[in-house]
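INFO batch 0412 | record 1 of 1 | parsing
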Amino acid sequence: MTVLVTGATGLVGERLVPRLLEAGCDCRILLRPGKQPAQNAETVTGDILDPATLANAVQGISAIVHLAAVFRTKDTDLIWKSNLEGTRNLIAAAKAHAPAARFILSSTSNVYNADNAHPGREDDPVDPHHAYPASKVAAEAELRDSGLNWSIVRFPFVYGDGDGHLEALPGHAGQWHPAQRMSTIHHRDIATGIKLALDGVFDGRIVNIADEAPTSVYELAALVGVEMESISEPLSNPWYLHVDGSLARSLGFRASVRTVFQAQQEGLL
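INFO prediction complete | emitting tokens
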């Protein structure tokens, strides 16, 4: 199986590709000009924003794992261009040159509405107001309507393998209620979920991938030595950033890093 991975040098991709290689996948990574590969995998030069470069990237592949995205920037035009137009370009290339390939799109639990009455479920209506999740919802719709064999994997807060994401959290969560609980997923279990998707287990589905213990922002900050202000006021949106992972479990997904505290104990942060 030859798998094209976009975003292979990003926070998720550079930790996922070695695990896919170890599992026996032949990985081909799409690199923008001037980028250096972080993994020992086949590389092809191209850019999801340059359609002319994508035909060669998708020739002969069995699957696409589309991780490339723009997130933390104030440039909303760049977010929409990268996350929606880039996905459209990759879909078009797949339809033209690899129509039988399985197309797996990484998405985000940030698509769920803040005032949800329960943990975010895959069939909940979504109406995100920020550019990143809104662009992801639009990209999801493009893929679902593409006619390709697709699956969409929504990740909550990603951490582990020394990626620095958990350490950066207190800087982004300063105005959040400390009791806000977040679903989380370790990089090791992103690989678990993507392998299931590559095997076809998630075909035609949107699937939340999360571990077993949503954890409060207060506790997550404490794991990296930051003490947030204690607040006893009621939490207005208790299910925000908390996702329902029951569909993934019913399809055979099991988190090997079940909680962030296990990750800490085993030196996996």
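INFO post-check: The chain has a mean pLDDT of 95.
INFO record closed
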